[in-house]
Amino acid sequence: MQWLLDLTPDEWNAVRLSIRVAVVATVFSLPPGIVIALLLARGRFWGKSLLNGLVHLPLILPPVVTGYLLLLTFGRRGPVGALLDQYFGIVFSFRWTGAALACGIMGFPLMVRAIRLSIEAVDRRLEAAAGTLGASPAWVFGTITLPLILPGVIAGMILCFAKAMGEFGATITFVSNIPGETQTLPSAIYTFTQVPGGDEGALRLTIISIVIAMGALVASEVLARRAGRRLEVE
Amino acid sequence: MSLSVDISHRLGAFTLEAAFESSGRLTALFGPSGSGKTTLVNLIGGLLRPERGAISCDGRVLVDTASGVFVPKHKRRIGYVFQDARLFPHMTVDQNLRYGRFFAPPTERTGSTADVVDLLGIGHLLDRGPGSLSGGEKQRVAIGRALLASPKLILMDEPLASLDERRKAEIMPYIERLRDETGIPIVYVSHSIAEVARLATDMVVLDAGKVAAAGTAADLLQRLDLLPDEERDEGGAVFEMQVKSRDEAFGMSLLTSPVGEIHVAELDAETGTTVRVRIRARDIMVATERPRGISALNVLPGRIAALGTGTGPFADVTIDCNGQEIAARITRQSAATLGLTLGMAVFAVVKSVTFDRRNTARTAAGASLPRGTTSNPLVS
To answer: The pTM is what?
Structure first.
């Protein structure tokens, strides 16, 4: 068993980096995820199907294509990347932040889908009732809608986190595979499989991936059940 | 309080065009399904925006399409009790009750949570979740929640429709107390004459999106022609009567009012209190001379004030008893056999057993006082 815990510094870095990238991707996706889900579930505006298609695009496109598009847009010489670098000093290309961006974009459609479904399931008559009791639309959202969609929000976050943990194609295309900076678990496993004698390391990281994925799944079940417990009685 | 409505609103093929004013303590919006009652309360509550027209309450304009005024529902301060209680499933009963209170300006909060909980008898439910409540309990909590938001007007959209007879009977007294003790005017949607006769002071009859009649409940309930076919059997006179004496040996109470004296069985009210009595038109026999040797205890002398025969098998006879009108429904054959004519002296005969719990109701002290002078313990 010792071999399983005996990680090299590079392997540790990959584990830590992967978790950091996935957490950052999930947390930063959440606010726009809820807004877009609300727009798609309830908005009536021109270009709604266009927005819907755009959000879901990363789900359908080959990840390498998404990664390449990110490189073109957010690369140092890309239109958005150059602006961000010049005015805010934010650089995505070949940094872990770029990995988080790529993972966030790839996980975004999954998150939006889960939240959107839960918003569509909310009984709007409850919101109307809250309105007659004096709650402004913002209060209605905070005290009625948000608590009611919480299980869906948690499910969306876990899906996004899991997708981010496993993201490979877009990440490696956009930010490459630099140990300690952009080498996440999947990239590290891929690297091990490309060198002779790398089997042991690949297996170690694979088992760690499975443990993290299972942990996230169990955590989401517990959280969703706790959030949904009081809703089920109705 | 006065509520003034003059709106027109189209929903698909249905057009609601309603104009009425009411200053009653409990105004019933009465009409068959699809007559526009719910649309009308949704317009008053601000859940719908009318295509044209204006609604104002106590001089405060809630909506006026001519001047572009539309007060959103959360600023109207109008409590709404829905047919389905709509309690928030993620909150306890206590949290549900306090929800609207939180949004009411502190200086305008009326009543106290303890009083309302007491009024509605829901003290034992406070820690429970809405999912574990019975239909009647849910509806009581919903009434309390609306009440605690300190509304200036309460709308009730068939709050009893989804409940069985027992649960209805369980809630009615609470609505009566609400009407008599809080002083907050109520607009009550119903298609049941029994509910309207028991609760309403005023009445607006809707039919196919139009106001067929508006006035006091006592007047309109006598107009059998206004009632839908399936409810016509329930129509009749409504009187407020004083309990004059009680006869414990027979379990009877003697009620009195200008219309005459009536014996009622099994009435749970003290001597001196005021009760509301409904005499269904079909429960009245008409006699041309004072009957003898008959089990019916109530014989009210009067004169025929109106006679509606028409071509159907029934005749509607309006009998004037000391200035109070009683509607009686008999067959056209009887009317012909007795030779009833306008102005004829007749006797209205009513069996005491026709007064069941559904058409005798207690009204609180002061309920029959002129409007606006009702004692008001909850709003003190």
So the answer is: 0.77
Task: Please indicate whether, in this complex, the C-beta atoms of A133 and B100 are within 8 angstroms of each other.
Answer: yes
Cα separation, A214 vs A82, in Å, equals 39
In chain B, what are the domain boundaries? 3-234, 237-362
Nearest residue of A to residue B101, measured between CA atoms:
A133
CB pairs A-B closer than 8 Å = 75
Domain total in chain A:
1
pLDDT digit string (tens) for chain B, length 380 residues: 689 999 999 988 888 999 988 888 899 999 888 888 999 999 999 999 999 999 998 888 999 999 999 999 999 999 999 998 999 999 999 999 999 988 988 888 877 888 889 888 899 999 999 988 988 899 999 999 999 999 999 999 999 888 888 888 878 888 888 888 888 899 999 988 888 888 888 999 988 888 888 888 878 877 777 777 667 777 777 777 888 888 888 888 888 888 888 888 877 777 888 887 888 888 888 888 888 888 888 888 888 888 887 778 888 888 888 888 888 888 888 888 888 888 888 998 888 877 765 556 655 433 333 333 333 333 32
Closest Cβ–Cβ partner in B78, B88, B90 for A132:
B78
Residue partners of A170: CB distance under 8 A and separation at least 6 = A58, A63, A64, A66, A67, A70, A102, A103, A105, A106
Interface check B72 vs A, CB under 8 A: yes
Nearest CA in chain B to A226: B90
Structurally, what CATH architecture does the domain formed by B237-362 represent?
Beta Barrel (2.40)
Contact (CB<8Å) B99/A126: no
Which amino acid is residue A97, in one-letter code? Answer: T
d(C-alpha B211, C-alpha B220), whole Å: 13
